[in-house]
Amino acid sequence: xxxxxxxTLGHPCACGRSGRSIxxxxxxxxxxxxxxxxxATFRSMPTRAxxxxxCSLVQLAQTGPxxxxxxxxxxxxxxxxxxxxxxxxxxxxxxDDAEVSFVRLAEIPSNTLGKFAQYVNEYEARR
Length: 127
Prior knowledge:
Blueprint: E1 5-12, E2 20-28, E3 33-34, E4 40-41, H1 47-53, E5 55-64, E6 67-74, H2 83-93, E7 99-104, E8 119-121, H3 122-126
Parallel strand pairs: 5-8, 6-7
Antiparallel strand pairs: 1-2, 3-4, 5-6
Helix pairs in contact: 1-2
């Protein structure tokens, strides 16, 4: 793990140490999506949503207080993604009143560390 990771606590270590262990890493602080009413979430988008876009990569970005941009790389230019279906899943999983727009890309650039970030909060980063 690294600073900025969000983890769930596990059970005490079997070795006898009294500290809690980490069960799993579930996200990064930079990937928390915040609603204007104060709610926050860092849940992962289900695989079925990615399948609706028929894509090899998808990135969810919060770009405004309640606006999200879904950037994706289609597997094939001849496949037609179900953006409305993806939007419905987004509203079920995140915020039901969010504005969601889509951007088809040939590639999704890596972040400054050279890694692909599936979830980014560009709105909070600018504030």
